[in-house]
Specification:
single chain, four-stranded mixed β-sheet, 7% strand, membrane, transmembrane helix
Length: 772
C-alpha cells in the first residue's frame, strides 16, 4: 500500500515538473504565450549593445552601421542609448516608448529614438545634459528631409556639443519655421540627376551655338554698316573688295608717288616719319579693313566644338555625384537578418508576432490562435510582421512570403499579417487544400485590411474558415502559391546608384539647347534693332550728338562730345575708305565702280582728304585712332572725310564747307553779308597764315581773304536761318575744358572760319605735319 502511494506521488511530482518545464520553454521561446513586450524586447537588446538598429530597415539604415552611431554617441560623454526603428513601430508617442524602455533597462543616460525620416525623440534620465531638447529642435529645422539617420544623429551631436544649442534652435525656428522643405537637399536623387542631365544638354549645345550665332550676327551688322557707309548694300554677302597694292606703296589716281620727309610737331613727337599721300591712304584703309573681311566658318565651328567640350567637362566636374545617400551600403547579412529571425521563430512556434512592433495581439488572443492552429488539418503558420519600402523585400509582401518558405523548406500554408492595418495574405506551398476555396474567401478576409483592423479577430475568422477548407481533388496539379513568380527586389546598391550625367534627359536637352540658342539670338537681334531705331529716331530729332543742329544735318551737333567725335571719325573714315578702295582695284570682270568714273580732279580731292584725315588721327600708323587726338583734330578729320565723300557723290559741291559749323557739310551758297559782324567766335578777319598756315600769302591771297569777309560759304540751312557756331572743348584738362568756338582753337580747322577751301585745308594739314 505504501509503495503504491509512493509511486503515485512520484508520478504526480514528475508530471508537475514536466508541465512547469514545458511552460518555461514556451515562455522563453520567441513569440511564445508570454512573449516579451516591445519595450522589454528593446531593453533587452540595448542591454547587449547601446545601439540597436532594427533589421526591418536595411535599405535605409543597415545594421552594420551601428559602430558609426556608437562613435558619435561617445562624443557626448554620457551613457547614450540609441534605437533606430521603422516609422510604424511607434504605437504611442516616441517619448512614451523611451520611458518604457528606460523603466525596463533601469540605466541612467541619454535615450534617443530615430527612424528613416529623422530624429523622433530624445530624453535624459539621471544625467545632466543641458540643451538636448534644443539640439533636437535645431536638428529638425537645420537639416532637409533627405538627411539620413546617421547624418541626423551626427548633426544632433554637433549641435549638442557646440554649447549653443538654444541659440541655434531659436535662430533656425525664426528662419525656417515650418518650411523645412525650403532647405536645399543634401543628396542628389534621380530626379535631381535628370534635371542636371537636362541642364547640361541645354548648355552643351546652347552656349556654343549662341556664341556662333551672335558672332555671325555681329559680323553681318558690321558689314551692313560698312555697306551703308559706302552708299550701297552687300552684294552676294561680300564686303568691298580690297585693293591690290604692293607692299608699303599705293598708287595715286595719277599713278605717281609722293615722298615724305620727317614731320615736325605731332609727327616728330611720335617718332614717325611723314608718309606720302599714298602711304597715308594705305594706313587709312587698315583702320576699318577688318570689318570687310570674310568670316571663316571652319575656325568658328572648331571654336564652338571646343567650347561645347569645355562646357561638358565642367558639368561633369560640378555634377560629380555617382550615388545618392550618405554612402551606407547594406551587407548580405543585413539583407537576410529579418527573414532569418522570422523563419527561426516559425520553426519554434506556428504563430510569430514581431517583438519590435507594438503588440498587435494580447496573451489571450495568442493562446486562442495557437489552439486553432494545432486543430487545423492543414499545416499553417502565421507571421505578424510589417512591410515597408526600406526592408529587404522593398515592401513587396510576396517576396517576403517566398523568402520565408525558402527558409522553412516544408509544405505549409503561410499567413502574412500586417499589424498596422490588420491586412492578411495567404500563400499555399504544397498543402492539400482546394486553391479555389482559398481564393473565394469572404470579403472581410481578403488581401488588404478591411474596416475592422482588429488583427486577432480577423485571424480567428480566417482560421475558422480554413478549418472548413475542402481537400484538393486527387491528381490536381499544384498551382503557383502566389499566382505568379514575383520579380526580385531591386538591389540596394543599384537603387542608390545615379544614372550617368550624359544619359536620360541629356539628349532632349541637346535639342532644346538649339532652340534656346535661336531664341536668345533672336532676342538679342530684336533688342539691338530696337535700340538702333531709338537711336536713329533721336538722331533725326536732335542730331547725332545732341544740340541744336538738327535742322542743318543729322550728324552736325553744336557741341559734340569727345566720344561722339571719335565714333564719327571712325565711321566717316571707314565710309570714305570703302567708297574709294573699289575704285582703285576692281575685280577682274566686275562692272566699273561708280567712283572709277569720276573726273580725275574729284578723285584727287577725295584721296587727298582721306590722306589728310589719316595724318590727323593715325600718327602711329597702327590703324587705330590715336588716344591723344584732341577734339579739334577729330573734328578736322571728320570734315575732311565728309568732304571726300562729297567729292565722290557731288564733285561740284566739294570745294567749301559751312563756315559756321563745318560738320554741316558742303556749302553751296554764300552768305549775303558778314553774319554777326564778324567771323565765328567773334574774331576779326584773319588770313589762313594767321591760323597757323601759309597757303594764302601774296596779294591774290589777301584779296581773296578780304572778299571772304563779306561772302562766307554756308550750308543751305545756315543760309535760311543762321545755325549755331560749332564749339569744341579746349585742350585744357586733356580735352575736357570748356566749350569754345572752333575758330579760337589752334590747328588747321580754324582756317574754315575764314572760308578756306577744302584743298587749302588738305595742304595746311600736310604742311602742319611736314609732309610734302
Amino acid at each position: 500500500m505504501v509503495g503504491a502511494v509512493l509511486r503515485t506521488g512520484v508520478v504526480l511530482v514528475m508530471g508537475w515538473l514536466a508541465v512547469l518545464f514545458c511552460a518555461g520553454a514556451v515562455q522563453a521561446a520567441p513569440g511564445g504565450a508570454d512573449a516579451p513586450t516591445q519595450t522589454a524586447y528593446l531593453a533587452g537588446q540595448l542591454r547587449k549593445n547601446p545601439v540597436f538598429i532594427s533589421d526591418q530597415i536595411p535599405r535605409a539604415v543597415p545594421r552594420s552601421t551601428a559602430p558609426d552611431f556608437a562613435k558619435e554617441a561617445r562624443r557626448l560623454g554620457v551613457p547614450t542609448y540609441v534605437m533606430i526603428l521603422p516609422n510604424t513601430h511607434y504605437g504611442s508617442e516616441a517619448t512614451g516608448l523611451l520611458a518604457g524602455v528606460h523603466d525596463r533597462l533601469a540605466r541612467k543616460g541619454l535615450y534617443v529614438t530615430l527612424s528613416p525620416t529623422g530624429l523622433d525623440a530624445v530624453q535624459t534620465y539621471g544625467v545632466s545634459l543641458p540643451g538636448a531638447e534644443d539640439a533636437s529642435r535645431a536638428t529638425l529645422y537645420e537639416l532637409p528631409y533627405d538627411a539620413t539617420p546617421r547624418e541626423v544623429f551626427r548633426h544632433f551631436v554637433d549641435v549638442l556639443t557646440s554649447g549653443h544649442a538654444h541659440q541655434r534652435a531659436e535662430a533656425a525656428h525664426a528662419k525656417y519655421g515650418d518650411s523645412v522643405d525650403e532647405l536645399p537637399l543634401l543628396h542628389t536623387d534621380r530626379t535631381a540627376r535628370e534635371d542636371q542631365s537636362f541642364a547640361t544638354g541645354v548648355a552643351v549645345t546652347g552656349i556654343p551655338l549662341t556664341a556662333v550665332l551672335l558672332t555671325l550676327y555681329a559680323v553681318r551688322r558690321r558689314r551692313v554698316r560698312r555697306a551703308a557707309a559706302a552708299g550701297g548694300g552687300l552684294s552676294a554677302g561680300k564686303g568691298p573688295a580690297a585693293p591690290k597694292t604692293t607692299a608699303g606703296t599705293k598708287r595715286s589716281p595719277a599713278g605717281s608717288k609722293t615722298k615724305g620727309t620727317k614731320g615736325s610737331k605731332r609727327g616728330s613727337e611720335k617718332g614717325g616719319t611723314g608718309g606720302s599721300t599714298a602711304g597715308q591712304g594705305a594706313r587709312t584703309r587698315s583702320i576699318g579693313a577688318s570689318s570687310g573681311q570674310r568670316v571663316r566658318m571652319l575656325p568658328l565651328v572648331m571654336a564652338a566644338v571646343v567650347l561645347g567640350g569645355l562646357v561638358a567637362f565642367t558639368a561633369s566636374q560640378v555634377f560629380d555625384d555617382t550615388t545618392s545617400g550618405d554612402g551606407s551600403r547594406p551587407t548580405a547579412a543585413d539583407m537576410r537578418a529579418r527573414v532569418d529571425r522570422v523563419a527561426e521563430g516559425l520553426r519554434r512556434d506556428p504563430l510569430y508576432v514581431d517583438p519590435e512592433s507594438p503588440p498587435a495581439l494580447d496573451a489571450a488572443e495568442r493562446t486562442h490562435l495557437r489552439t486553432q492552429l494545432r486543430a487545423l488539418r492543414i499545416p499553417t503558420v502565421i507571421a505578424a510582421v510589417s512591410s515597408n519600402p526600406d526592408d529587404e523585400s522593398d515592401g513587396e509582401k510576396d517576396l517576403l512570403v517566398k523568402a520565408l518558405h525558402d527558409r522553412l523548406h516544408r509544405k505549409v500554408l503561410i499567413v502574412l499579417a500586417e499589424p498596422s492595418d490588420g491586412g492578411i495574405e495567404l500563400a499555399n506551398y504544397g498543402t492539400p487544400v482546394d486553391p479555389t476555396y482559398l481564393m473565394n474567401r469572404p470579403r472581410y478576409l481578403e488581401y488588404s485590411g478591411s474596416a475592422d483592423p482588429a488583427l486577432g479577430r480577423r485571424l480567428d475568422q480566417l482560421l475558422t474558415y480554413l478549418g472548413k477548407a475542402p481537400t484538393a481533388k486527387p491528381g490536381a496539379a499544384e498551382s503557383d502559391p502566389l499566382g505568379y513568380d514575383p520579380p526580385p527586389a531591386v538591389d540596394p546598391v543599384e537603387e542608390q546608384a545615379l544614372p550617368g550625367l550624359f544619359t536620360g534627359d541629356f539628349h532632349p536637352g541637346l535639342v532644346l539647347g538649339v532652340f534656346a540658342a535661336l531664341l536668345v539670338t533672336g532676342l538679342v537681334a530684336a533688342g539691338c534693332g530696337t535700340i538702333r531705331v531709338i537711336v536713329m529716331a533721336r538722331r533725326r530729332r536732335y542730331g547725332a550728338g545732341g544740340g541744336s543742329g538738327a535742322a542743318h544735318g543729322p550728324h552736325a551737333p553744336e557741341r559734340p562730345s569727345l566720344a561722339w567725335l571719335r565714333r564719327a571719325a571712325r565711321h566717316d573714315l571707314d565710309a570714305l575708305t570703302a567708297a574709294l578702295e573699289p575704285a582703285t582695284a576692281p575685280e577682274p570682270g566686275a562692272p566699273e565702280p561708280m567712283a572709277a568714273a569720276l573726273p580725275a580732279e574729284a578723285q584727287r580731292r577725295a584721296w587727298e582728304c582721306l590722306d589728310a584725315a589719316a595724318l590727323l588721327i593715325d600718327g602711329d600708323s597702327d590703324g587705330r585712332i590715336d588716344a591723344d587726338a584732341t577734339p579739334a583734330v577729330l573734328a578736322c578729320a571728320i570734315v575732311l572725310a565728309r568732304a571726300g565723300r562729297t567729292a565722290i557723290d557731288e564733285p561740284a559741291a566739294a570745294r567749301h564747307v559751312c563756315h559756321r559749323n563745318p560738320l554741316h557739310g558742303p556749302a553751296r551758297k554764300r552768305s549775303e553779308k558778314r553774319p554777326g559782324g564778324g567771323t565765328p567766335g567773334g574774331a576779326t578777319h584773319r588770313t589762313t597764315a594767321a591760323a597757323g598756315t601759309r597757303g594764302t600769302g601774296g596779294p591774290a591771297g589777301r584779296r581773296r581773304a578780304a572778299s571772304a569777309m563779306w561772302t562766307l560759304p554756308v550750308c543751305e540751312g545756315c543760309r535760311v536761318t543762321h545755325g549755331a557756331v560749332l564749339k569744341l572743348r579746349s585742350q585744357e584738362g586733356k580735352g575736357r575744358g570748356a566749350y569754345v568756338p572752333y575758330a579760337t582753337l589752334p590747328g588747321p580747322l580754324a582756317a574754315l572760319a575764314d572760308g578756306a577751301e577744302i584743298d587749302q585745308l588738305t595742304r595746311d594739314v600736310r604742311e602742319y605735319f611736314g609732309v610734302h
